[in-house]
Structures are given as C-alpha cells and as structure tokens.
Amino acid sequence: MHSSDNSLSEVSFQWKFEFKLFPRKLFNIKFSGLLNQWWLTCAASFLWSIWLARNELVFNKKRLSFDEIMFLATLHSFYWVKASKEGCIVIESQWWSNPRLCVPCLKGVGPRFGIVWHAPPCGVIKFTVDGAACGKSGPAGCGGVLRDHSGKF
C-alpha cells in the first residue's frame, strides 16, 4: 500500500476507550435546561478540538499535546457558551477552574465571587445554607448541607 504524507495511517492518538460507546456515554448524560445546553456545547467543542488537532497533525505535521487540546476545547466552549445566551454573565475565571460554578445571572445582577467552603474543626458538623429568590414576590428556594471536617457527611 502506498503511503503519502497525509496518510491517516500516520495519525495516531493513543487514547484507549471503546469509541462505539463514546457518543452514547457522552450525549446520554442527563442535565436539564441551560446546564444541558452547556454540556452539549462542551462535548461538541471537545470533539471539534480533537478534529482540529488531527488536522494540525495531518496537514501541518504539528502534534498537539492532550493539555493543548483540552485548553482549546475549554476556550472554544467558553466563547460558545458566552455567545449562546444573551443576558447571561459567564465568569471567565471560574470557567477555567470549575465551569459548573458559572451560573448565569441576569444583567444587572452581579455574579458571586469567592465562594469557598472552609472546613470546621475536627469533631464539629458545619451546616452551610444558601437561598435564592426571583423578584420580591417571585419563586424562591433554599437548601443546606451538613459536613464534617473532611467535607463528608
């Protein structure tokens, strides 16, 4: 068999997983509403970034590392999510560390910065609560979690 410079046989990604099951596992994760839209956007961005990395290797002989591919996927996801919902604020600094903390806010409602859990002393149970309301007489909710010094309960 003749091998050219652009041969797919020269392309080797060394990732081990059952590729037939990948789309089913990737797209069968159940979120609701905006979080589901964000998940699908991130999944598509990840697949697109793999495709772009493959093109770099085939056409430009440049091999991207896994970290570079993940950086590009995260960057593309951030911009796509940011552009997908007008009126939402997506906090870039939190996107890089934990995208799930990038809860969209309506314009005029500031995002919450610096939310960090601090462990209680050993032998103490900490009860952390939070709440939210939509307007003065709109729907509201609250919740809480009990955790020990190791974060478990």
Automatic annotation (TrEMBL):
Protein name, entry field: RNase H type-1 domain-containing protein
Listed transmembrane segments: 35-53
Keyword tags: Membrane, Transmembrane, Transmembrane helix
